[in-house]
Every structure is written in C-alpha cells, then in structure tokens.
Design brief:
Strand order of the largest sheet of chain A: 1-2
Order of helices and strands of chain B: HHHHHHHHHHH
Low-confidence stretches of chain B: none
Radius of gyration of chain B: 19 Å
Helix content of chain A: 55-70%
Largest sheet of chain A: 2 strands, antiparallel
Oligomer: heterodimer
Number of domains of chain A: 2
Strand content of chain B: under 5%
Number of helices of chain B: 11
Low-confidence stretches of chain A: none
Distance between the termini of chain B: 66 Å
Number of helices of chain A: 5
Helix content of chain B: over 70%
Largest sheet of chain B: none
Shape of chain A: rod-shaped
Chain lengths: 143, 202
C-alpha cells in the first residue's frame, strides 16, 4: 500500500467507512510507516478540533417564518377585482359609443348640408334630381 | 390530527398528506429537517443571517416542487439536494458581487450563540473562540466540493452512501474529496497554530 492511498484509507477509517480487509492492510502499512502514523495522529486531532465547534442554534421563530411563507405561496393569487375589470370594460364601450355617435352625427350633418345645397340648387334651376341621379342643367352654373 | 401523532408518520406519508392539501403537515417535515438543513447551510456560508434566509428558501422550494419527489423513502436526500443547490447558487451569486463585510460578520456570528461560555475561564473562552474562528476560516478556504462533502460527513454525520445520494457523486470520489479536505485543513490549521519560527524551520 502506498502512503497516498493509506491517507485516504485513514480518513475512511475515521469516518467508519473502511472494510475489514482494507483496515487490516492499513494497519500493516501503519506498523511500518512513521509518516502515516503521524498523519493518523494529526487526523485524530483535527477531528476533535472540528467537532468541538458548537452546533448552531436553531433561530427562534424560523419554523413559523417558513410556514408563513409557505402559506402565502399556497394562498390563491388575488384575482383582478371584478369591479375594476367591469369598470374598464364599461369605460371602453362608453368611449367607443361616444366616438361612433360623433362620427354618425358628422355624417348626418354632412348629408343634411349636402341635401340643403341640392335643394337650393334645384330651386335655382341649376340641377334636376331624377331617381338617384343628379343632372346639371346645361348653360347654367356649369364651369 | 394531533401533532404528536403526526411525528410518528414517515416522511413519505407526510409528503402524501401535503400533496393532498394538508399544508400544515409540512411543518412536521420542517421540524424534522430544519435544524439539519440550517446546520449544513450555516457551515457552508459561515453566516447565521444568510443561513436563516437560505433555509427558508430551501423549504419553500421543496414545498413548491414536492411533486418532483418520487416517494421512495429518501426524502432526506431530496431535501439536502435542494439545500446543496440553493446554497451553492447563493455562494456563486455572492462570488460575483464581492461582499467584504461578510468576513467580519462570520467571525461574530459563530461566537454570539455559544452558551457554553457561562462560568468559564475567559482565557479558555478566548482560546476556543480563536480555534473556532480558525476552523471556520479554514473551512471557507476549502474548495466548495471538498467543504460540502466534509460538512455532510463531519457535522451532519451522513454516510458516504447518503452523501452520494445527495450529490450524485461516486463513493470513491467522496472518499477522495473528504480525505483531501482533511489534509488541506490539517495543513491550514497546523500552519496557523505553529509559531512562525517553527514554520521557517520546516
């Protein structure tokens, strides 16, 4: 067994993860290797130093904080308040209706003014209206 | 159902109950694994505040992805995997944004809650504090993979097989990582403990 491998086995043995067979081989190696014996002693010392550190205390209230966060996630997302949604829809249709009625009124006014012009022109014998067609009377008002 | 009875339920039974909508049963799992997860995260980050916030994140992530757990009696590996991933992500983010005050905070956080200090010789307290700070700093200097494996073994007392389940690494890789971590720590701590004259002689 080489020292490099022995160091890994030493660590495994310390962690209680070394098989009986490998443990026997390691013991044989240690019996004839001063460096590895010294390394084993240092490993033991290191383990004690590491385990001397106190276990961190569980923060007060952490359990409640976790459960609060989970319950917040669990709660269904608040939907868009229906009243607000309906208000938007109503406002949209209201504006659309006003806009369309204004358009219709303009068209109506235009049609009325056109009708007035035509009837004036008729009265002045500038044109005649037959069925759906308008005919200009020749020689008068023609440019 | 009374809390006492729920404590006797297996992890998988509790997970099933939570999946069915009994969210409050998750608190039994928090109680069962909270301390271990917090311990692990605190050793990894060396900061109590960060550990607290990461622990919260771990449990909320686990709860959110509970449907990914296959209920094969290995909830511990599932939750530790989540803890490992969340902590490593956090540490990687932190590396990108250099945060100097952490070093100071970490030294403070490890000493504040040591209740054994009462009725003890102040010199002993100081010596132990120094030793703990030294270990914390030396742990922080280890490679992340080495630190992770070592903490799971030394502080959480998990077997190599359990560590393999969490990390997805082979047992031989874990053996090597832990052994190298110990060798590096040994050198690091011994170098600090040794007077400078002895180091020069070596």
């Amino acid at each position: 067994m080489k020292c490099k491998q022995a160091l890994i086995y030493l660590s495994c043995r310390q962690d209680g993860e070394l098989s009986d067979q490998l443990n026997r081989e390691l013991k044989e190696h240690l019996a004839g290797c001063n460096d590895c014996r010294a390394a084993a002693a240092q490993l033991h010392e290191l383990q004690e130093t590491l385990q001397a550190a106190p276990v961190p205390e569980w923060p007060i209230g952490l359990q409640q904080k976790i459960m609060r966060r989970i319950n917040e996630k669990e709660r269904p997302r608040p939907r868009l308040v229906p009243a607000v949604a309906y208000s938007f829809i109503f406002a949209f249709f209201f504006i659309l209706t006003i806009w369309l009625s204004q358009d219709q009124r303009k068209e109506h006014e235009q049609a009325q003014s056109m009708a007035a012009v035509i009837s004036n022109s008729q009265q002045m014998s500038l044109l005649t209206v037959q069925d759906n067609s308008i005919a200009f009377i020749a020689g008068r008002g023609e440019k | 159902m009374p809390e006492e009875l729920k404590k006797e339920f297996s992890d998988d039974e509790l997970v099933e109950a939570v999946r069915k909508g009994y969210t409050e049963d998750f608190s039994v799992l928090v109680k069962r694994y909270g301390r271990k997860i917090f311990h692990f995260v605190k050793r990894m980050t060396a900061d109590a505040d960060e550990a607290e916030s990461i622990t919260q994140e771990v449990f909320t992530n686990v709860f959110a992805h509970l449907n990914r757990y296959t209920c094969q009696g290995n909830f511990q590996a599932f939750i530790f995997r989540a803890a490992k991933n969340t902590t490593l992500n956090h540490l990687n983010r932190q590396k990108r944004t250099v945060f100097f005050s952490r070093l100071v905070k970490s030294a403070e956080s490890f000493t504040v809650r040591d209740n054994r200090c009462q009725n003890e010789d102040p010199s002993e307290i100081l010596a132990r504090k120094e030793s703990q700070d030294m270990v914390t700093a030396a742990l922080k200097r280890l490679r992340e993979t080495q630190r992770l494996a070592l903490i799971l073994k030394v502080y959480l007392d998990l077997s190599y097989k359990e560590i393999a389940d969490i990390t997805g690494w082979s047992t031989s890789k874990i053996e090597t990582l832990i052994s190298r971590a110990k060798t590096a720590l040994k050198k690091d701590i011994l170098l600090q403990e040794m007077p400078s004259s002895d180091v020069k002689k070596e």
